[in-house]
């Protein structure tokens, strides 16, 4: 695998999708061969799982949710991420395994060890070389989600979670940052879109060499 694997993480409403699009546009203009993808829903099977799990009004068992994200990821790694990296491409994914660690681990309360086992099974140990974590206060993220809902009607089941849930998820992400500072970079997501973009470009340029 001689490609490069970059992931974007953050609580819902942190601005990561906005920043991913801006980065992808720039890298494409520079002529780089990039694959932009997302979790859940980076493959056809993943999109079906995404609709089934995020857009249902049925009460979803936390274990089923954990395994659904894992199934989405297994298909994503095997059918899109690994083949693209093997071809030497740059793969950028809007969310990956750290989201399961933070949302299903800290958010839903599954023990860390169990979550890590599921992640390892789904990914075969494939980790990103660089992860950008867009950090934002939970209250600000909730305000942004409310605006986004009106504009794009982009609501999903997770958007109904409580402030406490998102605080646990954010704290869990920050814990990863302190354990893996080389891979997992914190970006202040509270400022102006263009300034954040500059931070993103600096870090990614450094990583890509
Ligand atoms: P995410 O993908 O992390 O859920 P989005 O990129 O969809 O977040 O952004 C959520 C909402 O916040 C969108 O309406 C977007 O236009 C807005 N937004 C994104 N970045 C910023 C920013 N830096 N400042 C203010 N609003 C932002
Ligand atoms: P999405 O609409 O992609 O939200 P966003 O644009 O904010 O990423 O919805 C994905 C939701 O699924 C989001 O609330 C995070 C959640 N999620 C998990 O709980 N675990 C996971 O492993 C992944 C990949 C996502």
Q: How many domains in all? A: 1
Low-confidence stretches: none
Secondary structure: helix percent: 55-70%
Major beta-sheet overview: 5 strands, parallel
Order of helices and strands: EHEHHEHHEHHEH
Q: How many DSSP E strands?
A: 5
What molecules are bound to this protein? Answer: adenosine-5'-diphosphate, thymidine-5'-diphosphate
How widely separated are the two ends? 17 Å
* CATH architectural group: 3-Layer(aba) Sandwich
| Spatial arrangement of strands, main beta sheet | 2-3-1-4-5
CATH domain topology: Rossmann fold
CATH top-level class: Alpha Beta
Number of helices: 8
Morphology call: globular
Describe this structure in words.
- The protein is an alpha/beta fold.
- The protein has one domain (4-208): Rossmann fold (3-Layer(aba) Sandwich).
- Helices cover 58% and strands 13% of the residues.
- The protein is built from 8 helices and 5 strands.
- It has helices at 16-29, 44-54, 62-86, 97-107, 112-123, 138-152, 163-179, 193-208, and strands spanning 4-10, 34-38, 90-94, 130-135, 184-188.
- A 5-stranded parallel beta sheet has the order 2-3-1-4-5, with helices on both faces.
- Helix 1 crosses helix 8 (193-208), helix 3 (62-86) runs parallel beside helix 5 and helix 4 runs antiparallel to helix 5 (112-123).
- The longest helix has 25 residues, at 62-86.
